[in-house]
Amino acid sequence: MAALLEHTQETIAMRVVDALRDDIITMSLKPGDVISESDIAARYGVSRQPVREAFIRLAQQGLLLIRPKRATVVKKISPDGVRQSRFIRESIEVEIIRRVAGQPTDDAADVLTTLIADQEAASAANDSRRFHTLDELFHRTLARLAGVEYAWQLIDDHKMQLDRVRYLTLGVSSTQRAIAEHKEIAQAVAKADPAAAELAMRAHLARAELLLNQTINDFPDFFE
Amino acid sequence: MAALLEHTQETIAMRVVDALRDDIITMSLKPGDVISESDIAARYGVSRQPVREAFIRLAQQGLLLIRPKRATVVKKISPDGVRQSRFIRESIEVEIIRRVAGQPTDDAADVLTTLIADQEAASAANDSRRFHTLDELFHRTLARLAGVEYAWQLIDDHKMQLDRVRYLTLGVSSTQRAIAEHKEIAQAVAKADPAAAELAMRAHLARAELLLNQTINDFPDFFE
DNA sequence: GCCTGACAGCTTCCATACAAGGCGGGCAAT
DNA sequence: ATTGCCCGCCTTGTATGGAAGCTGTCAGGC
């Protein structure tokens, strides 16, 4: 059964964008790899035009670097860029958690605890991919509760750099510890304690810094 | 004499992007206006292809809305979008000012007072366009002092919506008041008082809210 | 042996042609 | 008079060919 009100049709260009982005984030296309419109077009059996448009989109998202008349390369990860992306994310998420904890709605705490329960299930099942999804959902839900879901979309865009790092260390991160930190955040929200919520959120996000430094050592070629 | 080390060449697509963005921000192209690739191509005497790529870029920046197989329209200004852009900006700028005031460098205060002096000169000369430039420079300088200039670039991208609003009310805003607020911020930095700096910055940014509501009343057709 | 310059092969960029689909006006049937 | 259909005209999407430019190679001169 096709969707009835589906009037945003899939164009070939969009499919190529999604496919390439997935390849890049999952490190199937590695930082520094050189690709060309013709290559990708041949690989997907389409013409060069949609591929070209996909390149433009991904270049604007900071995943590709188009060198006019020369070639297009998968952008290496900029440690300073990742650091500043983290700064942006922390700025926004701290402001979000302050709002949520400062003016908690009735069901806020319930929604969060439900999500945490799901995360525990995923962790118990050792399903790290599903846990990652639920982790994102946790943070996006906080943005929704603060009434700034669009802000999360922004974070999402500029967090792909960090996602590449994360993928390199998949399985390393301790889901148990993340869950404990989520609980701490949720409790601060339940108690309507913005200061405690802010501290818990900052501690939660700070862990990514270690991950970055470790990854730079393990995969120096992927960084600039 | 051509630039010697110019190896980032201007492509036609880039020129079209710049021209269109300027037209949109200065309201030469009004929210809701319908444009087509062929129109713009004919207007600039180029083919559809570069124009199409420009549309894609501007659509990703939220200035255009491409409706497949129908037409492309200049996006109307979303009040909620502007509100959330402001939220993002406030989150980041508050974090920036905290850092700058928390770990002030020796010359930070000097640089800021110099900038404020320039602003007073521009204000005295009634040069509102120059004042606007100096206003942006003030905030970008704070980002630089905090070591997160890239973050300001992000704000810059997502603040075009607000710039359109600002252009509608050009000359209305009181430069004197803005300068006074800048002074307050600079003083808090000089005293290394993060809390006071945060309050001053929040107050400074809050003024934009009034501007928005007033503008919605004056130009309801430009908003969705 | 070393330097220089032409050149072949690659890239992205632009122009053009065609395909697919939405929209509205005119027309016919009820 | 109203409703429903059909057909041009418009739009964006895709394909393809050629133009401009960068890079590395290789032959020729010193």
Written overview of the protein:
The structure is a homodimer of 224-residue chains. Chain A has 10 helices and 3 strands; from the N terminus they run αβααββααααααα. The first copy, chain A, is mainly α and 224 residues long. Chain A has 2 domains: 12-74, Orthogonal Bundle (Arc Repressor Mutant, subunit A); 79-222, Four Helix Bundle (Hemerythrin (Met), subunit A) (Up-down Bundle). In chain A, strands 1-3-2 form a 3-stranded antiparallel β-sheet. The radius of gyration of chain A is 20 Å and the shape is elongated. Chain A starts with 11 loop residues before the first helix and ends in a 6-residue tail after the last helix. Residues 1-6 of chain A have low confidence and may be disordered. The A-B interface holds A 8-9, 11, 52-53, 56-57, 60, 68, 80-81, 84, 87-88, 90-92, 94-96, 148, 150-151, 154, 158 and B 8-9, 11, 52-53, 56-57, 60, 68, 80-81, 84, 87-88, 90-92, 94-96, 148, 150-151, 154, 158. Chain B binds a DNA duplex (30 and 30 nucleotides) through residues 7, 9, 11-13, 36-38, 46-50, 52-53, 55, 66-72.
List the keywords.
homodimer, mainly alpha, Four Helix Bundle (Hemerythrin (Met), subunit A), three-stranded antiparallel beta sheet, Arc Repressor Mutant, subunit A, DNA-binding, 224 residues, 3 strands, 2 domains, 10 helices
Q: What is the domain total for the residues of chain A? A: 2
Query: Helix and strand string of chain A, N-terminal first?
Result: HEHHEEHHHHHHH
Sum up the overall morphology of chain A in one term.
elongated
Question: What distance lies between the first and last C-alpha atoms of chain A, to the nearest angstrom?
Answer: 48 Å
And the CATH topology of the largest domain in chain A? Four Helix Bundle (Hemerythrin (Met), subunit A)
Structural class of chain A: mainly alpha
Name the CATH class of the largest domain in chain A: Mainly Alpha
As a percent range, the share of helical residues of chain A equals 55-70%
Largest interface by residue count?
A: A-B, 25 and 25 residues
- Estimate the mean pLDDT confidence of chain A: 89
Oligomer state equals homodimer
